[in-house]
């Protein structure tokens, strides 16, 4: 039995709340159970220096965890002078995931920065961040279209992410911290709305996992991401941001 009493293929309760940050061009507060991440999209009218003259834009991301997002206060990374290796890895993952479904030339020589700030952590912060960041980015592009900054939405597809793992010998979907911290295998899947794999991260914490177990984790992930993409579409079909 899972700590949350969920079925093996059951997501936590997921919510996507749009337009929660007054000044950002796009924003989304995403919740995967007790994990909550604020995602904001900010438009900059110039791209990174290495793309100058290319006619192509850029989408990048920054990730941070608030000091009391966890059970004990963690020191702000700004006070140590640089982000941790984990933080750098996660923000690069978020950026790659969004760029995989974005037509960068359609942005023009501009940059969109997605800030993902973890308000509360209970496992799966990176997957929640990617799922909410897509909504914030979409709303940023919609904001640009309304002002004739761009003529079309540069997003080519949806993208969302979910964790899977083997907990007490059973492959399960969307791990919360109680499972994540004791799982024999932990994996994260980033998948597009059309089913394309953007990134797969999988680690055995003890006993190596088999190919059959990996394929079961992939099946669970595809089911979970399908539900997340359906929720993204449902939220976008609601009131305008």
UniProtKB/TrEMBL annotation:
Keywords: Nucleotidyltransferase, RNA-binding, rRNA processing, Transferase, tRNA processing, tRNA-binding. Belongs to the RNase PH family. Its EC number is 2.7.7.56. It is an enzyme of class 2 (transferase). The keyword Nuclease does not apply. Homohexameric ring arranged as a trimer of dimers. This is Ribonuclease PH. One of its GO terms (molecular function) is 3'-5'-RNA exonuclease activity. InterPro entries: ExoRNase_PH_dom1, ExoRNase_PH_dom2, ExoRNase_PH_dom2_sf, PNPase/RNase_PH_dom_sf, Ribosomal_Su5_D2-typ_SF, RNase_PH, RNase_PH_bac-type, RNase_PH_CS. It catalyses: tRNA(n+1) + phosphate = tRNA(n) + a ribonucleoside 5'-diphosphate. PANTHER family: EXOSOME COMPLEX COMPONENT (PTHR11953), EXOSOME COMPLEX COMPONENT RRP41 (PTHR11953:SF0). Residues 10-140, 159-223 form the Exoribonuclease phosphorolytic domain. One of its GO terms (biological process) is tRNA processing. Phosphorolytic 3'-5' exoribonuclease that plays an important role in tRNA 3'-end maturation. Removes nucleotide residues following the 3'-CCA terminus of tRNAs; can also add nucleotides to the ends of RNA molecules by using nucleoside diphosphates as substrates, but this may not be physiologically important. Probably plays a role in initiation of 16S rRNA degradation (leading to ribosome degradation) during starvation.
């Amino acid at each position: 039995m899972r700590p949350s009493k969920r079925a093996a293929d059951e997501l936590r309760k997921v919510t996507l709340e749009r337009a929660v940050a007054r000044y950002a061009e796009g924003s989304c507060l995403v919740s995967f159970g007790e994990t909550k991440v604020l995602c904001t999209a900010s438009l900059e009218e110039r791209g990174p220096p290495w793309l100058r003259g290319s006619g192509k834009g850029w989408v990048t991301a920054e990730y941070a965890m608030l000091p009391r997002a966890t059970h004990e206060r963690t020191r702000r990374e700004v006070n140590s002078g640089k982000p941790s290796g984990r933080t750098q890895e996660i923000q690069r993952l978020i950026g790659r995931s969004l760029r995989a479904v974005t037509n960068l030339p359609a942005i023009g020589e501009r940059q969109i920065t997605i800030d993902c700030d973890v308000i509360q952590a209970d496992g799966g912060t990176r997957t929640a961040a990617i799922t909410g960041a897509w909504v914030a980015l979409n709303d940023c592009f919609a904001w640009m279209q309304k002002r004739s900054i761009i003529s079309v939405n540069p997003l080519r597809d949806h993208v969302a992410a979910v964790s899977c793992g083997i907990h007490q010998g059973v492959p399960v979907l969307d791990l919360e911290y109680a499972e994540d911290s004791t799982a024999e295998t932990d994996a994260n899947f980033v998948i597009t709305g059309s089913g394309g794999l953007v990134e797969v991260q999988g680690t055995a914490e003890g006993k190596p996992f088999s190919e059959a177990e990996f394929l079961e984790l992939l099946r669970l992930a595809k089911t979970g991401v399908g539900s997340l993409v359906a929720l993204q579409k449902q939220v976008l079909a609601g009131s305008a941001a």
